[in-house]
Structure formats: C-alpha cells, structure tokens
Design a protein that fits this description.
The protein is of the alpha/beta class. It folds into 2 domains: 166 residues, 3-Layer(aba) Sandwich (D-Maltodextrin-Binding Protein, domain 2); 107 residues, D-Maltodextrin-Binding Protein, domain 2. The chain contains 12 helices and 11 strands. A 6-stranded mixed sheet has the order 2-1-3-10-4-11, with helices on both faces. Helix 2 links the parallel strand 1 and strand 2. The protein is globular, with a radius of gyration of 22 Å.
C-alpha cells in the first residue's frame, strides 16, 4: 500500500475506532444502570459522608431505577476508599461519596499517598456544604471558645483535640485555628468521625470540629457542648451559639462539603445520568427538610460546580499545609 494511502487508511480506521468507542459509551449510558450501584463511603458508619450517602441512596434509586448500596471503606483519612474508587472500572457502578477531607486534604498530608483524587477522579456533583461546630465534652470546664483558648495558653499542650485522621478537614482546620489563636493543642487522630465522636463524648479528647449533623446526637443527649459555629449567621436551632466571626475569627472558614465522584474515564453520558439523579434527589421535599434539620446548604448543579470547588481548594490548601508544616504529620 502506498505510504500516503496507508496513512489515510489508518486515519480513517482510527476515526472509526473513536466513533465506535463513543458509540459504546452512548449505548452504555442508554442502558445505564442495569444493576446496583456501589456508593463508596471512605469513612466508618456514623460520619457526615455516611449520613449523606444514606440520605441520598433512596431518592437517587427512584430516579436511576437501581439500588445504591452503601459500602464503607475507611482508613488513611479516607484515602483507602478513595483509591479503591479511582482503581475501579470506569462504568458508573462505583461512585465515591467524597469530601474536602479525603479529596483534597489527606493527599496533601499523608505520607506515600497512592491516589491523586483531583487527577484520578471526575466530578459528578456537589451535594451540599455543611455548618461545622467546635464541640467539647459536656464535662469540660470551659463554656466559651475564649475560655478554651485561655486554658490552652495557661497549660500549652495539655488539651487534646480529635480528628477523623491525619489530613482530615477537621485536623487541618484545628491546626489552622491553633496558629491563629496562638495556642498549643495535642492532636489525636482516629479512623473516621464515628470513633472520634465516641472518644469526645467519653472525654478522651477535649475538642473537635464536627459537622452539624454528626454533632446532633451528642448535643441532644447532653454529652457534648458547642462552643462556636462556622455559619455566617447563627442557625435558628443554635441561636445561643456564637459564630466564629463573633468570637474574633472573622477570616477563618473551616467548612465542610460533600459531593459525588467517579473514576476519571467514566463516559460523560454516565456522569450526566448520575448528576441528574443527584440533582433530583436534592430537589425533593424530604431532602430539603433533612437539610434544615442537619444544618446543610444543598447545592447541586452541574459537575463543574464540584470541579471548581476542588480547584479552589487546591489553590488554597497546599500553601496552608506547607506553612503549618503538616506534611507527613
């Protein structure tokens, strides 16, 4: 075959191959989903990502026509579950319930991270942002954030704070708080929010940053006390709890967000189908009622909303981690 003809043949063949691949992707999306979808939570049961996953599973099933089965895979501040999704087939049947903690913070702080979520995963959508609370055990002697700061200054390192793991959002956020307040606190990492909350209730640690929903059981049974909330304005259900801005930390925002992501090569039509189901779930009246109870701001929108949120975090947090010398903590 003449060289020019051969090149033309290969170009046409390559084009046909691309078209065939695109056709398979669209065909896959048309049939998708035809069996249950695994919803991987990279944290133990009881934490914010787990709570949100279980709230989303049923309304998303109603849209997709297939069950969404929650699969908790904790460890390494969420990186074990995150890596398992990144390595899964890119077919839309393995979806990650992701957050700033495992998607952004843990890879920056953990030694030898084997996954790079911003590169290895594709955004499906941003489900919500959540109000956070600085919480202490009910038996703690301090009633305000200023009292905690005063005790920490009087006895540096004597107070312990818990986190969901090295690199978790509440780890980095309290390290940032320590720097801003000029105090020393001793870090105690746990394997997820659930064990950390149990330790907090028992008084093993004296402080933690929790999302509003995760703090509720302890607040209701009187085992936990909130010192401050991260909302811009006081939540009606916590009208007596001051905001960070009111407590002298006007430019400090240790917020939480939770979204859905899939392996990077997942076909765009499949991502769009999942995004449609997520938005439909967020629009349902029961979900709005849960958001009000749990202190959530429901977001939704296109996958780009989550992608832009991650990009913004990636511009802000690497310098912070370096400045606070948290790498390999």
């Amino acid at each position: 075959m003449h060289v020019s003809n051969r090149r033309r043949f290969l170009a046409v063949a390559g084009g046909l191959g691309t078209a065939a691949a695109a056709g398979r992707a669209w065909a896959q999306a048309g049939a998708y989903p035809d069996h249950p979808i695994k919803l991987v939570v990279p944290n133990p049961p009881g934490g914010p990502s787990d709570i949100v996953a279980r709230f989303l599973a049923e309304p998303m099933r109603a849209v997709l026509g297939q069950p969404l089965v929650v699969d908790n895979r904790p460890g390494a501040a969420g990186l074990i579950g995150t890596a398992s999704v990144a390595a899964a087939p890119a077919d839309g049947y393995t979806v990650l319930v992701t957050s700033r903690s495992n998607h952004v913070m843990a890879p920056l702080v953990q030694k030898n991270a084997t996954v790079d979520p911003p590169k290895d995963l594709a955004a499906v959508g941003l489900a919500l942002r959540a109000v956070g609370l600085f919480v202490v055990p009910a038996q703690a002697p301090f009633k305000t954030l200023q009292e905690l700061i005063a005790q920490a200054k009087a006895k540096p390192g004597s107070l312990f704070y818990g986190s969901a793991g090295v690199g978790a959002t509440n780890h980095v956020a309290i390290e940032q708080f320590k720097s801003l307040a000029g105090i020393e606190l001793t870090h105690v990492p746990y394997k997820g929010s659930g064990p950390m909350i149990t330790a907090l209730m028992a008084g093993e640690v004296q402080l933690a940053l929790l999302d509003f929903a995760s703090a509720q059981p302890g607040l209701k049974n009187g085992s936990l006390r909130p010192l401050v909330q991260t909302a811009a304005r006081r939540l009606p259900s916590l009208a007596e709890v001051p905001t960070l801005a009111e407590s002298g930390f006007r430019h400090y925002d240790p917020s939480f967000w939770i979204g859905l992501a899939v392996p990077r090569a997942t076909p765009a039509p499949v991502v769009a189908r999942l995004n449609q189901a997520l938005n439909a779930a967020l629009a349902e009246t029961p979900m709005k009622a849960r958001a009000q109870v749990n202190g959530w701001e429901l977001v939704g929108g296109a996958p780009q909303v989550l992608a832009e949120t991650i990009a913004q975090d990636m511009s802000e947090f690497p310098p912070l981690v370096k400045r606070l010398d948290l790498k390999g903590a």
